[in-house]
Fold this sequence. Notes:
2 copies of one chain form a homodimer. With 914 residues, the first copy, chain A, is an alpha/beta fold. Chain A has 36 helices and 31 strands. In chain A, the strands form 6 sheets. The first copy, chain A, has an 8-stranded mixed sheet with strand order 13-23-22-15-16-17-18-14. Chain A has an 8-stranded parallel barrel with strand order 24-25-26-27-28-29-30-31, surrounded by 5 helices. In chain A, strands 1-2-7-5-6 form a 5-stranded antiparallel sheet. The longest helix of chain A is centred in the C-terminal third of the chain and has 25 residues, at 623-647. The first copy, chain A, starts with a helix and ends with a helix. Chains A and B meet through α27, α29, α30, α32 and α34 of A and α27, α29, α30, α32 and α34 of B.
Amino acid sequence: xxxxxxxxxxxxxxxxxxxxxxxxxxxxxxxxxxxxxxxxxxxxxxxxxxxxxxxxxxxxxxxxxxxxxxxxxxxxxxxxxxxxxxxxxxxxxxxxxxxxxxxxxxxxxxxxxxxxxxxxxxxxxxxxxxxxxxxxxxxxxxxxxxxxxxxxxxxxxxxxxxxxxxxxxxxxxxxxxxxxxxxxxxxxxxxxxxxxxxxxxxxxxxxxxxxxxxxxxxxxxxxxxxxxxxxxxxxxxxxxxxxxxxxxxxxxxxxxxxxxxxxxxxxxxxxxxxxxxxxxxxxxxxxxxxxxxxxxxxxxxxxxxxxxxxxxxxxxxxxxxxxxxxxxxxxxxxxxxxxxxxxxxxxxxxxxxxxxxxxxxxxxxxxxxxxxxxxxxxxxxxxxxxxxxxxxxxxxxxxxxxxxxxxxxxxxxxxxxxxxxxxxxxxxxxxxxxxxxxxxxxxxxxxxxxxxxxxxxxxxxxxxxxxxxxxxxxxxxxxxxxxxxxxxxxxxxxxxxxxxxxxxxxxxxxxxxxxxxxxxxxxxxxxxxxxxxxxxxxxxxxxxxxxxxxxxxxxxxxxxxxxxxxxxxxxxxxxxxxxxxxxxxxxxxxxxxxxxxxxxxxxxxxxxxxxxxxxxxxxxxxxxxxxxxxxxxxxxxxxxxxxxxxxxxxxxxxxxxxxxxxxxxxxxxxxxxxxxxxxxxxxxxxxxxxxxxxxxxxxxxxxxxxxxxxxxxxxxxxxxxxxxxxxxxxxxxxxxxxxxxxxxxxxxxxxxxxxxxxxxxxxxxxxxxxxxxxxxxxxxxxxxxxxxxxxxxxxxxxxxxxxxxxxxxxxxxxxxxxxxxxxxxxxxxxxxxxxxxxxxxxxxxxxxxxxxxxxxxxxxxxxxxxxxxxxxxxxxxxxxxxxxxxxxxxxxxxxxxxxxxxxxxxxxxxxxxx
Amino acid sequence: xxxxxxxxxxxxxxxxxxxxxxxxxxxxxxxxxxxxxxxxxxxxxxxxxxxxxxxxxxxxxxxxxxxxxxxxxxxxxxxxxxxxxxxxxxxxxxxxxxxxxxxxxxxxxxxxxxxxxxxxxxxxxxxxxxxxxxxxxxxxxxxxxxxxxxxxxxxxxxxxxxxxxxxxxxxxxxxxxxxxxxxxxxxxxxxxxxxxxxxxxxxxxxxxxxxxxxxxxxxxxxxxxxxxxxxxxxxxxxxxxxxxxxxxxxxxxxxxxxxxxxxxxxxxxxxxxxxxxxxxxxxxxxxxxxxxxxxxxxxxxxxxxxxxxxxxxxxxxxxxxxxxxxxxxxxxxxxxxxxxxxxxxxxxxxxxxxxxxxxxxxxxxxxxxxxxxxxxxxxxxxxxxxxxxxxxxxxxxxxxxxxxxxxxxxxxxxxxxxxxxxxxxxxxxxxxxxxxxxxxxxxxxxxxxxxxxxxxxxxxxxxxxxxxxxxxxxxxxxxxxxxxxxxxxxxxxxxxxxxxxxxxxxxxxxxxxxxxxxxxxxxxxxxxxxxxxxxxxxxxxxxxxxxxxxxxxxxxxxxxxxxxxxxxxxxxxxxxxxxxxxxxxxxxxxxxxxxxxxxxxxxxxxxxxxxxxxxxxxxxxxxxxxxxxxxxxxxxxxxxxxxxxxxxxxxxxxxxxxxxxxxxxxxxxxxxxxxxxxxxxxxxxxxxxxxxxxxxxxxxxxxxxxxxxxxxxxxxxxxxxxxxxxxxxxxxxxxxxxxxxxxxxxxxxxxxxxxxxxxxxxxxxxxxxxxxxxxxxxxxxxxxxxxxxxxxxxxxxxxxxxxxxxxxxxxxxxxxxxxxxxxxxxxxxxxxxxxxxxxxxxxxxxxxxxxxxxxxxxxxxxxxxxxxxxxxxxxxxxxxxxxxxxxxxxxxxxxxxxxxxxxxxxxxxxxxxx
Lengths: 914, 914
């Protein structure tokens, strides 16, 4: 009798056997069965390829149902399983021409788990099963490579001992270390061990396993096989896997399948080898086979980089290496691979990344998966696949990761990985606050930036943090980097609006304004940079490099327009832009904006010639003084709005009334104070005292937005008048205007009611003055948790809601975006408390729950309430997917992200439809 | 035929008449009918008094149902109403012995509205109805006072013309003004008009009404009556009333009743008069009749203060005035009044404020209502009413307004109204941040306060705002006043904890530290106060007075203990205290605390000798340095906890781990920086640079609490160790300890999970070191909207939730308590956007909605989850009522508010039970 644990644990026979087969060969016909559910992802993939006629090493899969049954019944297998496995194994042996445990022609198999969704690294795998003290000799002889054979055996011992017999990994390290020491070099590499040393290692591993586990490594290959199968099933229940499933929402009852597959070897001489083929060029998308091949090598050798592979095709080979390509060496095999690649791409409807092994002239495909690609390639491939009739336009839309479009739309540096490969390490890391790249000489203040830019210099503005006074410097610089602040800090928001690249919150930066120095601690050592020193920024990845790096210009590819057309046909969500300038509005239209979702009117206040008038307005002593300066500002505002309305002819524009706390506009330097005092005819002391009195401890939660609108109504009245006068003026020119007046930071229904009444009264005065009217809407930003909770009341006074998810995230989490840099990166990267920065990706559990409450409340009161998102999340694909599911009407984002938003909205709609 | 609008508008006869009477005399027997619903508050009150045998002027009420019907049927009355009214009127005429429209003995009636709840000033009233050109002569003759008769008539014309005929109020003013001018003195008072002038005025009013309304004032008294009834019913539908009902949640369908009542006159000679009687002394609660009487006068004369009333009783009369009291003048009438008062008090079970009129020797009660009283009187009356068997202890509990206890528990100034009556106006107003009163010389910084207090001076600390460095000065001062900050600003919170009175956020204060001056703008004029000038603070009302005022000491009355005992028997909510010191803990127990709900451990860090160690810890360069200083601090913390545990022997104590951002502890002055640098052996520049790097833009939303706990775990580990070592130590002394470790500002389940793991690991180390264990709980503050939304997850890692409603209010509203002073008072007082400061009274719609979500989520996960509130709201009666309804387990408040909380909790429980 074989000492096989399975048959001895058999289920009582009174229970009926499962109604269908428990084991399926890869070439079994399972009809319409959901292969992934029954066979797991791996088994399903191999079965699918086999069905397509692709040669995969033969094998079989024990179903997920057996796993469920096995775990539910205390580790006993269903009746008849042993026979099914035996029959399947015999079939495999027949196809390969080797037999498990046959010393002269030993079959080796891999035993792998595979659930219906991928759980990378969570469960166990055993390779080279079938080796024992006898068969290893056969393998050595057959391969002519004893080193290979004993290396394979010791790997089996290690994996099997660990996974099946529970011997701690560290014990193997100890044995190996001891052996290396005895060989005279404790630091030698595994690959330098002689065949004899490996043979010795195999002995010692066996002895160690027996002493640790209390029983020897099984020489019986059937016992090996059943031990491995049991371990795979049990691994579904290990703690790590349970935790992972909980985190990912994977059901425990799904179970894992167990796939047993013949191993093939690419290192069996010169007619063997391993390679990887992309069905299209993953960089450009061009339709040519693209890949690498290494003769007489296993797949892992290609990956390990010990030897250098050559191109698959002569055309792609380095000059002089043409004859080493697979195309020239083994044209038949190459032709086969080309055929398999074409078949796989046609079947999966996407560019494939195919791993294959040639064993003594016979090609096997080991695995195929969707190939990774650049954004540029993704677009071209998707569009060409439609042209070739392989996929529909809707399918093509799902082939492009929206975020990958960023590479097309901005100038960029090589990726950090590419640079690292060339030995270029970043000086420091921060947040990818505004995409793109730039190289320039650093300056530490906005005036200097502007002065040097006027002299024709290319400068980067380096600040601890930026404030409204820095905007002219940000405009003058090619990029901005800050030491503090998050994804929605002032620097980040303004840089995105300006289309400048920006890295924010570089914690390692110590910016010394006094000495005009930037100190960076790198690996315990402090590096110092002075004004004029050159840095390079990668705003797409949040990296800062010392010195100048080559910047790759933004790409323009014709396929993008086609893809965008399809996206526009598929999406339900409208897409608007966040922009404050006529130029921005025009850019936004060219990127496909269907309106302005957020025009931050306060940004208009910072133009040089106006800032002082605004400061005077804020600091004027009393209402009369304030009104005087409002009269000075009003025509400027009206002019801004006219230009924006013209640019958005025919499209709606949501104009947010003043949002910032007044103190943001205060003069800070003595010069600024003196200048304001002169303009006001007041003493500098008095002005300084008033400015000090406006200081706020937590300005984000302070006297801002509608709170200013209600306590100093003249300001909002001026803005409403400017908007409507501008609308009337351009309407007179034949422009179609849809003004949406947006009241920010509302928390109370009565606030909105009162503010609306003030705005409507002013509107009536404007119309009376003009002798004509124009249609407009009044709505509110939803930025506070309370606003979400009373949305049913707010909707009585609002024609639209625009979710200001930046501020809503701040208040829901109680985290200031300006101060988050001190702990949020640690939360996301080190402690893994959050899967993403909630200022970049909308937090569905918290912020999303509030948005859903608000949507329900708002629409409950006003059926056709228009709903949009105008926070930074409006340009994030995952957040856009939420917006689609939550039933919003539009998203709004910075102009350069519009293509991303359009594609993401289309994908979200398609996902929801399915 | 009479030109009566009612009968001509009769409903079509095919509709069935209402099934019961539409008109009820005051002495009608209505059985168990809900009188207020049917007759409105006024009608019900008069009917109830009549039933009790109290003589009220006779009358009848037309039901609310008629009003509803009238409005629903376009202003037509139910069939038969005319006859019912006529019959009831006849009955009234019979009782009074006068008839409506009878020129020789004219009856006059009032026609008043009255809904089931009071809507003060919202609907209309007409007095003196029944006067016309003929009856006015009869009244003049009968009263012997033509001036009185024509004055009554012109008042009728004015009210009727306005209410029924829609003549604008201003028109009467014009006519009257013109007449006065003709009389030679445009500024003469109404009372100085001669009878002839009044007669002329009546003529002119009639002419004006006819010209304005297009028809004359009706001489037909029946037309007058029906016009008034219709106007009363229609007033239910006026815009003002609709808006009021919406605001107050009063249902439109309730309708108003209309009460018609004979008028009686106290000005019909020396046997007539008017008075007010309190059934007990409203200041002291003593059981004696207390009131005033004015012979030959109408009630409004008493109110108007034209003549001075005298006491009701001889005992209470000013010396020499005894004979002018009602007791002496009309002993029989007095005895009647005494009897009525006793009957009314017995019936309503509470002290009554009774208005009465004596008409020619016959006493009528016009109105009775629950009498207003001081806190001291309220307690005494409630307890004595039980002793007298009038009410049950549970009823007695509802007789005391919890907030009124504050007067008993703190020293106080006379109320602002009392002071105003004496001509003392406040210098400025702020928020009543911490109750009590104080008079002292002002100082502008904490060191000065301490120095002068040591010299024996009584000082008030005046600051723009306070910070932790000011605590020693706050301790030294008798009171604190700040120019900015709200009910939960630093100054407010600390002052309450210290039991000092505090007025916060006095917007009119301009504090100039440099000049050591306080400037206050009063009525456009600036007053300046220097160091040493004396101010007085009323922390209970938020007033600041110039100069010294007499402070009334806190009262101690034995009845309070009895009331508290009853409260404790009735309440379900437990009551805990927010306190950080052993002394505070002992005080809390004496006030009835059942545990500590919030011990803010960071307050312990501010004692003089520790602050520097804490600063060094915060600013130490690297982990090792930090740990060194933590070791210095640890024994101090342990000592604090031991003392608190001893004081709370047997009761639970929730100890909140460090909540504040580290930057709160940074040194600010050059001296402080130098001192820290010396202690750290570091350069002042380096220390200053590190301190600057820790600056936060919005500290409330910054790197604080659990965020510090997770990024610098050594700090929380030290605190956990100190808590548990202290617990073990005092347990060894025989003290019973229930430590609750509270983790603040949690927003993510994983934050709490990770922090709990760190705390538990430290606890295990403590127990291992000690060789013994002790039970403890770990829970979290719920202070962020997100925490409420994911409470179901948090409850997996928490044995208790404590709602930190201060911070929760801040984040839900997006309002910083420190900065709210700039607009929140305007919101509450001027714009009426909020009915109360949400930092003082829990906002049920927003914050309350989140709490309910959290309660449901938390208890859904963990059934017995302990829930409490430890924000300032824990001491506010309305908020406590919410806590009862939301099913929380306890509230926690500052020690002096504990009696208020106990009473409020009892009332809430009784309300909920009903």
